[in-house]
DNA sequence: ACCTGAACACCGTTCAAGT
DNA sequence: ACCTGAACACCGTTCAAGT
């Protein structure tokens, strides 16, 4: 009995889903195209129609990650009030929560070894994200809740603190209460840094 | 003519040196034990005497990295004056400079997929490093130049900011002047966060 | 257009055997 | 103790050929 026809039908999407499962379970290094093909029930050469190379698949995963992080951050902003401190708090916690749930994916998003053409898309995705944070800072400046200054420069310490905190907490083996405390401390730290 | 005797003599050190060259040139993902063996002029099985697995070699490289970063940070402290602001500035710039010169190595050091036994050593190395920074902060508190508080908590935002800044700058494709500006802004940010 | 089958040139790791 | 030779079970990628 032939469960699967000659044409899989939606191999591209299936590969991405399977890839994210093993990414989440075992990390990017353990990802094998041949294994994905096996799990999808196709021949070892089949994936190459949809992803010319393994890196192309990883790049596609990274793009998906940016899209989802974008949604999460935007949603967090909508739930926040107008005050800068509240917005910053929400953004930081949303980012942190995403990074805890998608550690390996985030690592992939920040990895600097993409194909040249995909790198273009990914840089654009990063800009979209920092653009969102930029607007929050500018808004804070307009409300007089953030000290004046070049926003492109002011955004760096915030982005760095968040990215670094998630990286630290994931590699260090901290407890959940330590993570919570560390996040709260870091947010307070950032608030002080932005205060007029 | 037999240039090399049956026993290589110092294969372990040779492998580490060669490994760091390709790490620097092409990244950790491109590192191949067989290739290293070829470059060292030994059989493919020879490395396994010194590094039971590829990960073991990567772990050894990471340990080397911690030792060197430790030296760099300690030296930076010795060149600094007594004022907290000066010490923080030196530490931050030393870390940044190390991270620019040893991007791939630093990534390895922070990577969270080590062998269980090596992980132990690496966690100890991290503690040694944060211990150094902890002492600087405590010193600042004694001098009244840093606000009071739990040092283990206070150190997190600093470590996060530095780690995150290097990660950002490496993945983003920033210019050297942007890096310099970003670093200066981040240091100022941290100084404000620590001010009493 | 999408997939298979078979091949190519690689891997990491293991293990008996050599020096 | 340290290394070789040969083997095993994998990889990613390519390409003619099938549906």
UniProtKB/TrEMBL annotation, chains A, B:
Gene3D superfamilies listed in its UniProt record? Tetracycline Repressor, domain 2 (1.10.357.10)
DNA-binding region in chain numbering:
32-51
Locate the transmembrane regions by residue number. Answer: none
Q: Can the keyword Transcription be found in this entry's annotation? A: yes
> Which SUPFAM superfamilies does this entry report, sorted A to Z?
Homeodomain-like, Tetracyclin repressor-like, C-terminal domain
Task: Output the PROSITE patterns linked to this UniProt entry.
Answer: HTH_TETR_2
Which InterPro entries does the record match to this protein?
Homeodomain-like_sf, HTH-type_TetR-like_transc_reg, HTH_TetR, MT1864/Rv1816-like_C, Tet_transcr_reg_TetR-rel_C_sf
Keywords noted in UniProt: DNA-binding, Transcription, Transcription regulation
- Which positions are tagged coiled coil? none
Please list the residue ranges annotated as the HTH tetR-type domain. Answer: 9-69
PANTHER family, sorted: HTH-TYPE TRANSCRIPTIONAL REGULATOR RUTR (PTHR30055), TETR-FAMILY REGULATORY PROTEIN (PTHR30055:SF220)
Q: Any idea what this protein is called? A: HTH tetR-type domain-containing protein
Q: Which organism is it from?
A: Actinoplanes couchii
């Amino acid at each position: 009995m032939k469960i699967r026809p000659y044409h899989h039908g939606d191999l591209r999407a299936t590969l991405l889903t399977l890839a994210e499962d093993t990414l989440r379970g075992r990390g990017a290094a353990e990802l094998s195209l041949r294994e994905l093909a096996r799990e999808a029930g196709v021949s070892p050469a089949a994936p190459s129609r949809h992803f010319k190379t393994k890196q192309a698949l990883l790049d596609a995963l990274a793009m998906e990650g940016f899209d989802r992080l974008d949604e999460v951050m935007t949603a967090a902003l909508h739930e926040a009030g107008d005050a800068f401190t509240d917005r910053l708090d929400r953004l930081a916690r949303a980012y942190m929560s995403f990074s805890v749930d998608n550690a390996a994916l985030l690592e992939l998003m920040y990895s600097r070894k993409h194909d040249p053409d995909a790198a273009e898309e990914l840089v654009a995705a990063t800009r979209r994200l920092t653009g969102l944070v930029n607007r929050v800072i500018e808004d804070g400046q307009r409300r007089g809740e953030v000290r004046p200054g070049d926003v492109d420069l002011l955004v760096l310490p915030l982005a760095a603190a968040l990215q670094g905190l998630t990286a630290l907490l994931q590699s260090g083996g901290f407890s959940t209460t330590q993570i919570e405390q560390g996040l709260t401390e870091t947010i307070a730290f950032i608030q002080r840094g932005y205060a007029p």
